[in-house]
Amino acid sequence: MQAYVDEYADFMSSVRHKAVNTIESYKRDVTQYITYLNNEGVTDISLTTKTTVLSYLLELQKEGRASSTVSRTLASLRSFYLFMKQNGRVKNDPTTNLEAPHVEKKPPQILTSAEVELLMNQPNTADNKGMRDKAMLELLYATGIRVSELINLNVTDVNLAMSFTHCAGGKKERIVPMGNKALQALTVYIDKARDNMVKSDTEKALFVNCSGVRLSRQGFWKIIKHYQHQANIKKEITPHTLRHSFAAHLLENGADLRSIQEMMGHADISSTQVYSQLMSSRIKDVYTKAHPRA
Question: Which is deepest, 89, 168, 204, 277, by most CB within 10 Å?
Fold first, then answer.
């Protein structure tokens, strides 16, 4: 059955033109499902039923997997079974009318301006790695781009003269302005550090690791966790935390939702409105604590 998974991954790449990270996620979910089937003695995918899929999802929940993980797995299996049905490998789709478990959405984690400042001051800009890290953190907070978009940037995607970033790695291609702090950090990195880090003149990546090739998501994750601990910030900081903070701080200082939506590359304004709801909640909390007649 693993051959079916490989065919499915090829289809998602060559026909559906899905992003590499999306394909890897789908393939991982389906591969784990196939492993489960093999362990259960099910060797023919056409013999799987709705009960089979439900039993697997229940098993994931028993293992303590998050509701969001179970929900994403079901979405992956739906896509896989649709592919299998269209290719005549199965007659019935057992995921039809199956409901994903309810996902309780937690409010996004937001850093204060003081915490952002503290985080930005952690890299040691006396060495190449520190100059690179400073530039990445400043650019991420200045533009609100996703970490996948950050690491996919090429040198030609940043315009230092016009102070903007061309972001084409996500779902929506866009131009995002950057502030002076990010511009300064990026200029220092490009002028003084990047050429010392790359091993080949043909390397296009803006941000490279110590081996001189494009930095990975995992690599950046480790970097930001390192500086969180170094700064002794108690909040859990992820690359997405800076994206959330970017949006919340813009809104807090008077930016309109439509502009924030455009800069963040949200297809739906509802994705951006969560920050407005968060700000309303924070204002109400401040009022309740501070007003003598609240």
Answer: 89
Q: Quote the radius of gyration of the chain (alpha carbons, Å).
A: 23
- Asked whether the beta carbons of 166 and 158 are under 8 A apart, the reply is yes
Whether residue 274 is predicted with pLDDT greater than 90 in this model: the reply is: no
Query: What number of other Cβ atoms are within 10 A of residue 144's Cβ?
Result: 22
CA dist., res. 152 & res. 30, Å (int): 26
Taking the C-alpha atoms of residue 6 and residue 221, their distance in angstroms, rounded to an integer, is: 28
Question: What does the alpha-carbon distance between residue 140 and residue 165 come to, in Å, rounded to a whole number?
Answer: 11
DSSP readout, 182-215? Answer: HHHHHHHIIIIIHHHH-S-TT--BSSB-TTSSBP
Structure tokens at 125: 């800009």
- CA 145 to CA 88: how far, in whole Å? 41
Separation CA 208–CA 215 (nearest Å): 5
Whether 134 and 184 have beta carbons less than 8 Å apart is answered as no
Instruction: Give me the mean pLDDT over the 110-125 stretch.
Output: 93
User: Is the four-CA dihedral 109, 115, 118, 120 of positive or negative sign?
Assistant: positive
For the residues of 221-264, what is the DSSP string, one character each? Answer: HHHHHHHHHHHT--S---HHHHHHHHHHHHHHTT--HHHHHHHH
pTM, two decimal places: 0.59
